[in-house]
What does this fold into?
Amino acid sequence: MAQMKDKMVPFISAEEINSMIADLAKKIEKDYAGQEIIIFCPLKGSCLFVADLVRKIHLPVIIDFVHLTSPKGEGVRILKDITVDITNKHVLIAEEIVDAGRTLSFLRSRLLAGSPKSLKIVALLDKPARRELPIKPDYIGRTIDDRFVVGYGLDSEELGRNYSDIYNYAN
Ligand code: IMP
Ligand code: MG
It folds into this structure.
């Protein structure tokens, strides 16, 4: 059956994604050596990124999921809140992509209210040209220009999350 990706252009291959994540994991392992980390996966887009990232971090890792939504013209809303106690813990948000930064700013404030020992952000992709709020990931897999990408967790109207590679629309 025809798929959306058939009409798209390959942008980042599965091999490149794998090596970007290996580099991120190495940095994280070094910075958090000897410590436990709570890694937050904002649903749904970050599911594949978190699944691959945590398997490359050889430290005690606790995973939790949050689900936020930001309908057009409305503020950010929580669909699923955190379920672990983050008081005095090292917390890392793992986002597949940072765009305007609205979701991430909201989540950061929400988590800071839980008094973590530290709070950092790891982003597989960063689109700084689109930023509306001042938020900067501490670890970035790759900075990209202003383009809409699909695959590896990233969707277009909910489809394409299952692609192993990342694609964009032909210009
Ligand atoms: P922000 O709040 O504007 O930073 O939005 C971040 C969220 O928008 C991401 O977690 C993605 O779910 C979605 N998003 C942003 N850019 C893209 C894209 O290029 N493709 C697919 N989803 C995207
Ligand atoms: Mg999305």
About this structure: Residues 4-160 form a domain with the Rossmann fold fold (CATH 3.40.50.2020). The helical segments are 14-31, 47-55, 102-112.
